[in-house]
Design brief:
The protein has about 350 residues and is mainly alpha-helical. About 50% of the residues lie in helices and about 10% in strands.
Length: about 350
């Protein structure tokens, strides 16, 4: 179809644009009550026609975009984008959107009008509330993911955060003083048997906290012949993948006793609900505090720090990086290296020797 220049004409007190759409049909659109506004709108219509777009459809899309906000779009994003995501990822999305929805200006902003300065203002407000850079990055990352999905859904033309360095600087990798940690002291301070059993496994196996809390009897396998790897777990790891991770002799002894002759069910069900525990932080935080455990930066020792201790201890005991990577179910050597803590005391002893 040959392009035909749209024509402006005045009808009563209002201006109108006559044009031929890409299908060759003559159409009219109202262009406002002022000549200046009508000329601006005519320029926009010409741009659409030169790109082969139907002006009426583009106007309808613009009206829809004005009504679609981060708040209203989240349900669509969650339903479509989250269909193949792990429960942990979906939980993270829900936590982030709760915080985003507290920022009225951001949550009610149409997707088509979101720009970096608006997101930057949100980041500053969250920092003033005391949120960590990591938390803010997770929330901003969710906003960018939603904008990417909106582009795929043709709600907006592009993601304004795509080529913007919006991430805040996060702390360097967390280190714990391997030589200062005494698992036996921490285990002795546990007041409940299930705490002692769980902590013993966390120190002696490649499981993360969530993997342990949701561990099922069917996922635990005891090799008939074993050396360092005395138990094998076939679990869903971080990222939703199924993978085998290892456990040592202590973990084997604990699990043999806890599972006994059961063939299915949760390994550590809550006595009150029969379901997995939802929180074990309070009790173990007290144990770590009483045992005098801290990270190298002086912050409190966390449950996840047992993995730092485990990886570093195995490497110090002569395990290869590849064997340690397999034991902890890491995707790459870089993941294992991130958990490695240099034992300065051991270095000093080697130099003295």
């Amino acid at each position: 179809m040959n392009y035909r220049e749209p024509r402006l004409r005045k009808r009563g007190n209002r201006w109108q644009i006559d044009y031929v759409n890409p299908d060759g049909i003559r159409r009219q659109l109202s262009a406002g009550s002022t000549r200046q506004g009508a000329e601006r709108f005519k320029a926009k219509v010409i741009g659409w026609l030169l790109e082969g777009k139907d002006p009426e459809r583009e106007m309808g899309r613009a009206q829809r975009q004005a009504s679609v906000t981060l708040d209203t779009f989240f349900d669509t994003f969650y339903r479509q984008h989250g269909v193949d995501k792990s429960a942990k990822t979906l939980e993270s999305y829900n936590t982030s959107i709760k915080n985003i929805r507290r920022a009225t200006e951001l949550k009610n902003c149409p997707l088509s009008e979101i720009r970096y300065p608006i997101v930057q203002a949100y980041q500053e407000a969250r920092k003033a509330e005391g949120a960590s850079n990591r938390t803010i990055n997770m929330e901003t990352g969710l906003i960018s993911l939603m904008l990417d999905h909106a582009v795929r859904c043709q709600e907006i033309e592009y993601n304004p955060l795509r080529n913007v360095k919006y991430r805040l600087k996060e702390p360097q990798k967390r280190d714990v003083d391997v030589s200062a940690i005494d698992p036996e002291k921490a285990l002795a301070l546990c007041t409940r048997q299930y705490q002692r059993d769980m902590l013993g496994i966390l120190f002696d196996a490649g499981l993360r906290k969530r993997e342990l809390l949701h561990l099922r009897v069917e996922e635990v396998h005891f090799p008939d012949v074993f050396d360092e790897i005395a138990v094998v777990f076939n679990v869903t790891v971080k990222g939703g993948k199924r993978r085998q991770v290892g456990g040592g002799v202590r973990a084997r002894e604990i699990l043999k006793r806890v599972i006994a002759d059961r063939e299915e069910g949760w390994v550590f069900p809550s006595p009150r609900t029969g379901r997995p525990f939802t929180c074990i932080h309070k009790g173990l935080d007290r144990v770590f505090r009483d045992a005098g455990l801290t990270a190298m930066d002086g912050t409190k020792f966390r449950i996840h720090d047992t993995r730092h201790w485990g990886v570093s201890s195995k490497l110090a005991d002569g395990w290869s990086l590849e064997d340690t990577q397999a034991f902890y179910g890491h995707d790459s050597r870089l993941s294992t290296e991130r958990y490695r803590t240099i034992d300065l005391n051991a270095v000093a002893r080697r130099k003295e020797g």
